[in-house]
Amino acid sequence: MSLKFSQEDAASRPLFVVSSEEFADWSASQPAAVQTWLTETGFNGGFGQVATLPGADGVVSAAVAGVGGAQDRARHRFALAQAQARLPKGDYHIEGGMAGLDPAEQALGWLLAQYRFERYKPARDSGARLKAPKGVNAARTETIAAGEALTRDLINTPAADMGPGDLEDAARALAKSHGAKMSVIRGEDLLAQNFPMIHAVGRAAAREPRLIDITWGGSGPALTLVGKGVCFDTGGLNLKPGASMGLMKKDMGGAAAVLGLAHMIMALALPLRLRVLIPAVENAVSGGAFRPGDVLASRKGLSVEINNTDAEGRLVLADALALADETPPDLMISMATLTGAARVAVGPDLAPFYASEPGLADAIRAGGRAAADPVWEMPFHAPYEPMIEPAIADLDNAPKGGFAGSITAALFLKRFVSDSAQYAHFDIYGWQPKPAPARPLGGVGQGARAVLEALPQLLDL
């Protein structure tokens, strides 16, 4: 699978992009035969409509894609992506305008619509390819699409083939392709090197836990990305019901997101020093599993009472964040499929995030708007701090009561970074529950494009 634009010198057919509001005027400007053909086929510029226009020899000479009315375009980003699967095989170029749509967003959407997960069976692609629209940076857009495809592939792969070792292999392949360095701490060495919570969460599994550490770049500001790599989450001894386990192959979605973002950063050769930390574990059930009521040590020295073994992601992230904070970067970002509370709050399409300072939040919000990567700021709400402070330890991993679950998880993580750190945390879902333009059912990246867009402002690149 290659998410690429067609070659600039390739022969191509015109593709007209028409909204419902523009259709009457646009149609009136076309030859009478085209007007009749569109009437006969029922095309009126509606959202997702596609019509091919035959030439005198009966061969498709052009096509027209409908992007609907204003309400359709407000409800659906990547409106043009619908056309990619519905057009005949061939190369196309945009003829005329884009119905007021952002060419860069629509070009990215077209590439993302070409994505297919093909590890276990081949998937059909229409073969419709687009030339990069005028003014669109083709190489950058292709790089972003490739990063998103990596994220989707990692999430979509079942845990049998995407355990901690497989995630390590994927990270190593990425590092090698960009000339990055990588080290890994595994199994009992996690205890010896003071990562007790990563070890505790992963020790019950047959496949040993590990901490993946990638570094790249020799100069510039420092950026550290930390991604939750829980390759499957049974819930541990607080066992999830079967229905809740069905999507737990995606519980490494934070790791997948930061690896996709890391590809974008390295492939674009951004002038910064990058570090990627991924605690990769399975939260399994065996005689060695950590228990409700246990008190765990952490790398930072804070003790953590375990009130629910199904709140394990924050534990492995905490040790990784503590390591990152020991050599403070200019910007630290964590990404994790952390809480169901975030989904209740904002649903699957928005990526909630927390920021340590207003300027960081503003830049991420602006980046999300510019990159068609919707995000929503949530608060590090200090009055909720007592909720994560139990009687017998420094911290509680799962406060009782069920209130503010995403916020208390974020506050928990923030205890493992310095007060002075510029830090953002994303509580993502990492899954598209039903097909949408450029986003098929399955794994999906969230937050990465927003961060990429914000980096020049945040790190003065």
UniProtKB/TrEMBL annotation:
The protein's matches in Pfam families, at most eight in alphabetical order, are given as: Peptidase_M17 (PF00883), Peptidase_M17_N_1 (PF21337)
Q: Which domain of life is it from?
A: Bacteria
UniProt enzyme class: hydrolase
User: A Gene Ontology biological process annotation?
Assistant: proteolysis
The record's annotation in Gene3D superfamilies points to:
Leucine Aminopeptidase, subunit E, domain 1, Zn peptidases
PROSITE patterns noted in UniProt: CYTOSOL_AP
Q: Name one GO molecular function term.
A: manganese ion binding
Which residue ranges does the record assign to the Cytosol aminopeptidase domain? Answer: 308-315
Keyword terms of this UniProt record? Aminopeptidase, Hydrolase, Manganese, Protease
Q: Where is the signal peptide?
A: none
| EC numbers | 3.4.11.23
Any single Gene Ontology cellular-component annotation: cytoplasm
| Family (UniProt) | Belongs to the peptidase M17 family.
Q: What is this protein called?
A: Peptidase B
Give the organism the record lists.
Candidatus Rhodobacter oscarellae
Q: What is the lineage of its organism?
A: Bacteria, Pseudomonadati, Pseudomonadota, Alphaproteobacteria, Rhodobacterales
